[in-house]
Structures are given as C-alpha cells and as structure tokens.
Specification:
The chain has one domain: Cytochrome p450. It has 17 helices and ten strands. A four-stranded mixed β-sheet has the order 1-2-6-3. β4 and β5 form a beta hairpin. α13 packs across α15. About 0% of the residues have low confidence. The structure holds protoporphyrin IX containing FE. Protoporphyrin IX containing FE binds next to α12, α13 and α17. It is a peripheral membrane protein. Its EC number is 1.14.14.16.
C-alpha cells in the first residue's frame, strides 16, 4: 500500500482524495485517519476521555510487561493513577525545583566540550547529542552520570537503539499478531534487548529500595517508590486488582528512556539541520542571546526573554514532528468524530504531519519560518493546529521536561558556538527517515567557538 510511502505521507495523500477524515482497514483493524486539526482536537480534547484507549500490540506488550507503562497501557483507573504518579514525580524535578536545570546544564557543558573538541573538522553531531540526552535521563531516573565512553552508558545506548530499531520494524506483527508463532529475527532481538534493559534497571531498583529514605527523593525512581508506598496504593486502582507494582515502577523508568531520548535528541538534530539551511536564523538567535543573556550561563527563567529561540524550537517541531502520526488511540465507547459515527474499539490515527502542514492554516507550510509563531507586535502565539506533544488525557507526560531540555541545550550551544557546513558539503537532507520517530539522515557540521567560549564550558 502506498508504494513504500511512510504512513504520514500516505495518509496525507489519501486525504487529498478522500477528504480529511477517512477510514481504512489495517489488517483486520478498522482505523480512522484524521488529517485536520478540528477533528484531532475533537478526539484528543473535547472527547478525550472517549478516545483515550490504546490498542493491543505484540511488540509493545512485550516491551511493557503487558502494559505496565503509561504510553501503551489501555485506559483504566489504575493507568490513571499511575499516570498521575508519574506526572507528580516529574513535577518534583520540574522547573520550580532547579534540580532538573542542574542536571541538564551539567550534560550541556559536557556536550559543548565534546563538540568543540571536534575542532574545525566536519563531524556527525548525532552520537554526542544522543549521549548527552541519554545522560540527562540516566541522572533524572537513577542518579547516574556517565563520562564519555563509560561501559554502562554504552550498554544503555546499545539496548535502547536495539529496541527502537526493532519496534520500528514490528509494524506487520502489530497488525497480524499471529505472525509471532513463526521464527522472527526482529522479535528475538527485541527480547534480547529487553532482557539487558531489565537486568540493568532491576539492579538500579534494588539499590534504590535498599537506600530509600523518607527525605526528598534523589531521582525519579525514589519518587516512584515513595509514591508507591504512600496514597497511590489506595483508591480505585487498588480495587481493580492491585496498585502500582514494582513492574510499573520498572516500566516507567524504562519508558523515560524509550519515550524521552530518541524524541528529544532527534528534535535537536532536526533544528540543527534546519539552522544549517538557514544561517540567518542562527545569527538572529545568537543576537538575541548576546543581548538578553550575555556570557553568563543561560537559565530556565531566561525563556521569557528569548522569544525568538522559543519560536525556532516550535518551528522545528512543527515542520518535522518526531511523532508524525500519534500513538494509535482507540474509541472506548461508541462515539462520533465530525458527526460520523465511530464504533467502540475503532483505532484512531491522528496525522500530525498533515495538521502541521495544512496550507489552510500555515502559510507556505514547507518553509522553515520561526516568525510564524510571532504576532505583529512580536509576541509569541501558539496556533490551535500546533500540537507536537498531542493534547488531552494522553498528552505527552514529558512535555515540560522535553521543552526545558530543548531550551537549555539549544540556547547553551548557540551561545557558545556556531554551526556551519563543512566546505563543499551539501546541506542536510530534510526528507528524513521514519523509524520509531522521524529522523534526519546523518549529516556533518563544523563547529567554531564564539568569542569568549574558546574553552568550551
Ligand atoms: C506521549 C511527543 C519527549 C514521555 C507522547 C505523544 C507525543 C509525544 C506526540 C503521543 C500523544 C498521543 O498519543 O496522543 C514528544 C516529543 C518529545 C517528547 C515531541 C520531545 C521533543 C518525552 C519525554 C518523556 C516523554 C522527555 C519522558 C521522559 C511520554 C509518555 C507518553 C508520551 C510517557 C505517553 C502518554 C500517554 O499515553 O498517556 N509524546 N514527547 N516524552 N510521551 Fe512524549
């Protein structure tokens, strides 16, 4: 179907023929595709509760010990309680506490040193960026910070890569689950990576349990364990067959890697790729930084002073949403979308790519133009058809963490260094490749320190 086109482009093309809302059979599954923000907002927000279900999928069921995570677990009172606990735990380390800022900053300093040591040679920034984001998540989840080349960090990155690769290849298996009875290389690799992941995370969990106190949580694992021991054991979820178990805690930690590394590092790499195409955008961000921040380290409270940088981040997420089709939702009751009846159990695929490129709402949607997020008076605006993190009951639980990371990483990088193409190199390919997320193809950069930052950090 679609001659090899990735689903977001195929659905956009089908939308031109059949209209912005259409249904199709993916294997035996009736699936409704939404290409327009009006219907997407109806499903995600107005009828968010009715469409907050998730379908069963073989690969993610394996990955999450039968839905003990947030992203792939079906809607239930226990899921709601689990999501609230995770949300509260993230908030603990959120913008207010300063803790997260310290964690990200330390990783940014290492990244800057590493990039600047690349010298005037062209190199691929992707491994260093992914390592820096992985390090943030490791510190946030279990308080480990790794130096470049650390064996445990390599292990985390290796199994994470393996999981991402096999989940991306699992499409057919998730449409026809019975395929799993046949020998399957993809499924075997996924199981191996999950086993390595679980060994490492179980060890961290046991260490945390042994040293857990009533004091302020050191990290996400502490916060989850404390929450597990307090009120979160009670309430609706408990009556439904148990509260938050160790498996839930473990799967949440695993999900912080699965959902938090690839998405954030890929968004950073897309923005750098577009900046290489539009050097004037880099100069304007740097002028804003020089005027508003100068040479002191950038902090979270500078966000309000750096509106153009925030627009560059938004425009990067608009033009290349890393999750171009959202995780499938399912209708939990008979309902309707745009007046069309929808049966319980129907899958709903929100095509964020089509929504972020809808010419009715975006002028020249294929053009990278951060100014579209500013109004005539230079104030920031957020159009209703911009939803890179989804919306409603299933909105990304890591949104504020991701936004904080994107802001601190990009501001610190552009404050300290400039990016350009190696001599004679063509600018990065902007088509991208769809795996679990939509990634840019590898490209090379030359990094030069800005005045005063020759030492890096
Ligand atoms: C869900 C985007 C970073 C954790 C999602 C969804 C999107 C998204 C589009 C699906 C919403 C839906 O199904 O309707 C992004 C982007 C990120 C990012 C663009 C970075 C630039 C993170 C981070 C974490 C995280 C850092 C955690 C450490 C999650 C979780 C869900 C989710 C747990 C599932 C929510 C649910 O099903 O209730 N994200 N995300 N994400 N994200 Fe993120």
């Amino acid at each position: 179907m679609g001659g090899g086109l990735p689903p977001h482009l195929l659905f956009t093309q089908l939308g031109h023929r059949y209209g912005p809302v259409f249904s199709l059979l993916l294997g035996p599954h009736l699936s409704v595709v939404l290409n327009r923000h009006q219907e997407a907002r109806e499903v995600l927000l107005q009828r968010g509760r009715e469409f907050a279900g998730r379908p069963f999928m073989v690969t993610t069921d394996l990955l999450t010990r039968g839905g003990k995570d947030i992203a792939f677990s079906d809607f239930s009172p226990l899921w709601k309680m689990h999501r609230r606990l995770v949300h509260d735990s993230f908030t603990l380390f959120g913008e207010g506490s300063g803790r997260l800022q310290d964690i990200v900053r330390s990783s940014v300093d290492d990244l800057c040193l590493e990039l600047l040591s690349g010298g005037g040679q062209g190199f691929d920034p992707s491994p260093a960026v992914t390592r820096a984001v992985t390090n943030v998540v490791c510190t946030l989840v279990f308080s480990s910070t790794y130096r470049h080349g650390d064996a445990e960090l390599q292990e985390v990155m290796r199994y994470n890569d393996g999981i991402v690769e096999t989940i991306a290849g699992g499409g057919l298996l998730d449409i026809y689950p019975w395929i799993k009875v046949f020998p399957n290389r993809c499924l075997r690799k996924l199981k191996d990576c999950i086993a390595i992941r679980d060994r490492l995370l179980s060890r961290k969990l046991e260490e945390h349990k042994a040293s857990l106190s009533d004091g302020p949580p050191r990290d996400l694992l502490d916060a989850l364990l404390q929450g597990q021991g307090q009120g979160h054991q009670e309430g609706e979820g408990h009556q439904e067959g148990g509260g938050i178990t160790d498996d839930h805690v473990l799967m949440t930690a695993a999900e912080a890697f699965g959902a938090g590394v690839e998405t954030t590092s890929t968004t950073l790499l897309w923005i750098l790729a577009f900046i290489l195409h539009h050097p004037q955008v880099q100069r304007r961000v740097q002028a804003e930084l020089d005027e508003q921040v100068g040479e002191r380290p950038v902090c979270v409270s500078d966000r309000v002073r750096l509106p153009y940088l925030e627009c560059v981040i938004n425009e990067g997420m608009r033009i290349r949403p890393v999750s171009p089709v959202l995780i499938p939702h399912t209708a939990m009751t008979d309902s309707s979308i745009g007046g069309h009846p929808v049966r319980r159990g129907t899958r709903v695929l929100v095509n964020m790519w089509a929504i972020h490129h809808d010419p009715e709402h975006w002028d020249k949607p294929d053009l990278f133009n951060p100014d579209r997020f500013l109004d005539d008076r230079g104030h920031r605006v957020t159009p209703p058809c911009f939803m890179p993190f989804g919306a409603g009951p299933r909105v990304c639980v890591g949104e504020s963490l991701a936004r904080l990371e994107l802001f601190l990483f990009l501001s610190s990088l552009l404050q300290r260094m400039s990016f350009k193409l190696p001599d004679g190199a063509s600018p990065p390919n902007l088509q991208g490749r769809l795996g679990v997320v939509l990634q840019p193809l590898r490209y090379k950069v030359v990094v030069t320190p800005r005045e005063g930052w020759e030492g890096g950090a």
